[in-house]
Structures
1.
Amino acid sequence: MVRPTPTKPSFRSRFRQWLGRTFTSTVAETLGAHRIYPPPTAIPRADAPAARRWGFDDTRFVWDRSGAPRLQGNRYPLCGVALPALTKFARDVLGFELSAEDRHVPLAEPHAPERRSDPALERALEQIVGDRMFTDGPTRVRHGHGHTASEIYTVNYGRLARAPDIVVMPESTEEVAAIVRTAAHHEATCIPFGGGTSVTGALQCHDVESRIIISIDLARMSRVRWIDPVDAVACIQAGAVGRVIAEQLAEHGFTLGHEPDSIEFSTLGGWVATRASGMKRNRYGNIEQVVLQADGVTAAGEVGAFTGVPRTSHGIDPETLWFGSEGTLGVITEAKVRLHRLPEVQRYGSIAFPDFAAGVGFLYALTQHGDVPASVRLVDNDQLAFAQALKPAPRRRDLPLKWLQQQVLQRWHGFDLSEVSAATVVYEGSQELVERQQKTVRAIAEQFGGIDGGSSRGADGYRLTFAIAYIRDYMLEHWVWGESFETSVSWRNAMPMIAAVKQAIRDRHAELGLPGRPFVTSRISQIYPEGVCTYFYVGFVYKQVEDPSAAWHALEGAAREAMLTHGAAVSHHHGIGQTRTPWLHRAEDDGRTTLRRKLKQAVDPHDIFGVGNQGLSERS
Amino acid sequence: MVRPTPTKPSFRSRFRQWLGRTFTSTVAETLGAHRIYPPPTAIPRADAPAARRWGFDDTRFVWDRSGAPRLQGNRYPLCGVALPALTKFARDVLGFELSAEDRHVPLAEPHAPERRSDPALERALEQIVGDRMFTDGPTRVRHGHGHTASEIYTVNYGRLARAPDIVVMPESTEEVAAIVRTAAHHEATCIPFGGGTSVTGALQCHDVESRIIISIDLARMSRVRWIDPVDAVACIQAGAVGRVIAEQLAEHGFTLGHEPDSIEFSTLGGWVATRASGMKRNRYGNIEQVVLQADGVTAAGEVGAFTGVPRTSHGIDPETLWFGSEGTLGVITEAKVRLHRLPEVQRYGSIAFPDFAAGVGFLYALTQHGDVPASVRLVDNDQLAFAQALKPAPRRRDLPLKWLQQQVLQRWHGFDLSEVSAATVVYEGSQELVERQQKTVRAIAEQFGGIDGGSSRGADGYRLTFAIAYIRDYMLEHWVWGESFETSVSWRNAMPMIAAVKQAIRDRHAELGLPGRPFVTSRISQIYPEGVCTYFYVGFVYKQVEDPSAAWHALEGAAREAMLTHGAAVSHHHGIGQTRTPWLHRAEDDGRTTLRRKLKQAVDPHDIFGVGNQGLSERS
């Protein structure tokens, strides 16, 4: 509107005008770049997960010829080395002797529960999915459980009360919708299945369920449908497995940044259904920040959100209910997710603190400062000791250095080695960002007596995550029950809650007269300005315990009482499923429980998605 | 578990141990600090909002003795100075002569629609709220509209078809629950009322509503109940007004950081109900990131979420439905919100770009870089010209400098003054953060031909926000209709959509044969990695137009068609209300509409919250 005085353009002016045109055309070109449609991928047979254990089928702990535990295969840095310290650790901490001769040998084949059949329903399903329908025992068993220790114990040493009667693997949203309509017509019930990594009993079938149970496995809906390099958004099918998504996006220079510990096996749909959280949340957000929108099929039909904009205020958003739905509202079929360019730099760090409180102080000060690295974790002294037990025997020539390091820590820094805690850090981003955050972390750590432990210790800490998951099943085979659970708590309540939970488990262990000593440790795995996410890891000897699963539930119950008393959440990111439903109802007010039931009733009045998580089924 | 070798502690070691204890006790002390309970505050009479205009009652545009428009009072930097350029702007751009003699004089008193009464209901309500119940005409009219130009036009020049019959002001959640129960018992309908600043017709009462309409005004539920300085969380009642919240939190060193343009009058509850967005979202998040949880009263009773933890995975979260509920599900009564320490530094910046595309390129590059200042906005050339029109006449001695500046811009930088666009920036945070972001902004701006416009131009841009809102009603009194709307769009579609909307409005204006010329400008007010939020501002002369409201709807309709075609959202943060419902239904698939209706039906089967926004009432 402001008209320029007509002037003879100078050279500089013409040059600027030319530049202006260049900017404009560059912008138009950049913003017009084409979408990428990656080819479909299939998971190679060699990468198949184990049926009744955690992890890949080719990887497990075995007894080394030297008489020490060793992780088979070559998938992880820990693989192939004898870990004599692990047996010593079990002896010292649990008061139990791990032995190759004293194994609790699992069943050769799982006992599949009785299958109910409905030929008319099966014919109708076959019309939809063809030969992608399975009714064999092992497939049914695999679809009838997740990865709680109780479930793994049951499928290895006992028998599931009930499992899906039919497993189908649809290849499109239309097929999912047809399956759901068919199930409704034949009065069957459906349970969506992703990676099968639930740790809340969310896949358990009820023995009182009289309807045919159809497991809808999304393994064949696992494509990255498109990547938009302009808007940094991708559309990914719900059955895509975390590690495959990461590989496919990396090929095009992108990352989701969502890295739960289960990333090797869990799926995008499962993440949404459980409200998952990844290790690098500080940089990339929790799943509700990662997923811009999720689409799916409910009993009432397909629901797709308005697409392709960064944010809307479109009234009540029904799709937000997918988050935390745990299979009770329908099948999540695909999602649009936020991408990030692969970071220029990734670095690790570690810091030793004189004790746990000093470590917590450091975490608190860091969150209040605000420039928090992608991941920061803090382990307590017991967990630090456990990590030490997962190291190979030191080479003789390294012993003097190790001794020297300990002397420096104790004599120079005055650390009591039975009190020390340790933080590990992952930095991701530009060179500038990473260096700045390293500086910040160093400065704040120093204020709390922290000592730099070097980047290799940090990297080790994170790399252990995946290998460590295999230990649970190894221990289970050697009469040691291992389980973990997570919670969320305010800064104010964090330390008292952690102490109370540990004490409660020790006390209950003594009350129950269980053999040996309990192992209880905690790790702060996520930090927020308002508080933390804490994991607890519990181990106990179950040899000659009549009902180890009941013993575990008694220990967990004691822990949850302590958590409730200290205002901690029932779950930070694993969900409620079935094992945690009673605790959810105790933690929240009736109004909320009632409203959740009303919503379920509205979306799925005939309880077609009748798995019963969160108490959302009359049969549960 | 790792036992230290007993050693005689050195001095350094003892010193470290002492330090360790100090850290530990400091941490315990810090994490144990008490909650703050601020005293209740009341909004002084002098700060009352105007009844039928935007803004404070003591502030409005008037004709200066010099014959130019002037903003009365002393609340804003713009107040008290004559703005002769504004009349010139209207003449040049709209082709219309603003004149003190040619006013469209509003009604002296608003026409209140007929009131329905139910003595039994009124007695029951009186039992609950005592004398905090109102049935007078002006109060009823004020509670029967928001701030669309159509509504303001109607209350000033026409008559609302319907308004609330009773206005109640509860003082507690219990009172709200009692009111809702009473309404249900007497088959009345309830409409929650916060700041009354809706711009989507979300407060309009339906003329076909045969039930008694109760407006539940939350003005008396406006306390900051507590501030937790440890966890940086506050509990605030839903009726608290933005500017009052900001003042109260600032006294204790905190800020919400949520600053919608309506912050002077809009309330926390209204922000949740509409899914609001604040200017400084890049730093503080949208309302769903600001609010950790919202509690309220539905037709089914009170709903309070699990409190006091940073995050949960507690299954389906019914409270997420409060976001975007727009009064259709119940009354939001209070919320726990995330606080931030007041920033160490706040600075402004401005940048001139050769054209709009270069400015968009800058915004895109900045979001992909990632270190984005608290607020970054981009105005197009027409809006820049409008901002110029809101400046006082330059002093004669400044004229040569102004001329020189223009010469430099045109001759040296080669800018075409009819193409220039401008970005304004707010930096907030630590000194270090702000300086780093300034460096980043400068470097990226340069790549797109940007020229630093200085911080005072930036500050002016933001300060104008509040004063500029008064112009709409001044113009309305002088036969010029002004309205704005916002949308959300991907980067890919941003520029084509903006161009198409502008063209559509110009074309429709011509088709309708409206007098003068239309004024259409746009501003990018929010930037995301995935796209932008864009505002459009439209002005047109309505003198001798039979039904100006219908003319506006025709213009808006043309704009919305263009938005739909280009994949833009129906709303980024103002919501759907009633005026946008038809467009929402066109933009989204039937599954989503159906599911939203089912949810409404589940929570409020008797449609007690029957305002009908989003088409969620049979009466709507």
2.
Amino acid sequence: MSRIYAVGIGPGGQEYMTQEAFQVLKQVDIIAGYTVYVDLIRERYPDKAFFTTPMKKEIERCRWAVERAREGQSVAMICSGDAGVYGMAGLLFELAQQYDDMEVEVVSGITAAISGAAVLGAPIGHDFCLISLSDLLTPWELIEKRLRCAGEGDFAICLYNPRSKKRDDYLRKACDILLRYKAPETVCGWVRNIGREGEEYRVLTLGELGAEPIDMFTTVFIGSATTRVMNGRMITPRGYEKHEDTYFRRNDGE
Amino acid sequence: MSRIYAVGIGPGGQEYMTQEAFQVLKQVDIIAGYTVYVDLIRERYPDKAFFTTPMKKEIERCRWAVERAREGQSVAMICSGDAGVYGMAGLLFELAQQYDDMEVEVVSGITAAISGAAVLGAPIGHDFCLISLSDLLTPWELIEKRLRCAGEGDFAICLYNPRSKKRDDYLRKACDILLRYKAPETVCGWVRNIGREGEEYRVLTLGELGAEPIDMFTTVFIGSATTRVMNGRMITPRGYEKHEDTYFRRNDGE
């Protein structure tokens, strides 16, 4: 039985990796991944072989890694965030099933919806949807439909890939769709360079969000009807306060 | 400035905690939390003070912790999974804003949608919704509406709190709603005791899911129209294969 590891490294810094991920990377022979992510961790593993390919070369990268694993080498494919959320885990399973005896082991990581939420406060403290605005692999019509359904269901929403050079107006288009269902005052937020140098965030309204200077290193959060600003942070309450009015009033000084 | 930490410990085992979470818990004076979760980590920190309360005592627990932090003690409130996903982070922000100088720092953890997905394969490899079936704090009508919208948008769906003693038929009701939008053959899966002793999982269809013997320690996944079974695992592809037909065909032996 051959095995390949799909490892989520979280937002980048070693402190955000799980100890399981750290141990798996320490023990493998080869670490493969997208050039930018491998560069984030390369210095921590000076004795490893690395294999990197640029974006849009994911299949070649995964095929190469699966072939090395079949030869008996110990290989980890790293992904930023979690390998199972818009990561390489699914593709590795697809490639692995072409062989008799290839197993994929997914090692969890902190995806940007989680790490970005921690920076903003608690924007996804209740039911939420995660939607990617990238139409490289998904028809834009399906993305629009999911935005409409997420808006109609009053979900909190986390948007990945909110903008790129070729897709300059997708965030504005998404906001326009959501404004059919959500009030312009709906609390929103974004985080750039989560857990990395230059980390910044802003809390704002859905009415303002579409015009923000947001890039591909930014994760966007759109509140539900219950989302509030508290001390400058974005909070979607789970609902305890509704059931404990007396308790909260007493402590508000009433 | 006083500070309190909201720390996600992941599914339980130390290897699934981030190194940041491990360090924060090592450095605080007091670890507070739900009795069951504190018992998962108590042995790792023999020199700490612990404060635990049972379920439905979340406000008292958080209030107590915030008051200790105000007195200058170093306090971490732990949550299973991530503190920002149906956890205590939001409640701590609500309580902290009643004081002038209280800061909440959220330390990310692996939520069950991520850790459960790793066990099943890659069920949330594309856009997905996270919905809790608990109506303790949320009206059932809103839960139903979100299920309908998630179904209509063809999201992959992860369900938290799929069943409890008092809510014996909620998973069946949820499946009945989703069957209006999704085919009975839709690939589904569940994972029980993720990352703990007795971990088990099953891959099955939406038509079968409602009758499964699922408890409150189980996380449920419902596929989108593209979700497939591969080598017994549940995979929602990101869509690479559609764009690389030649590549995949060649490697299928054609």
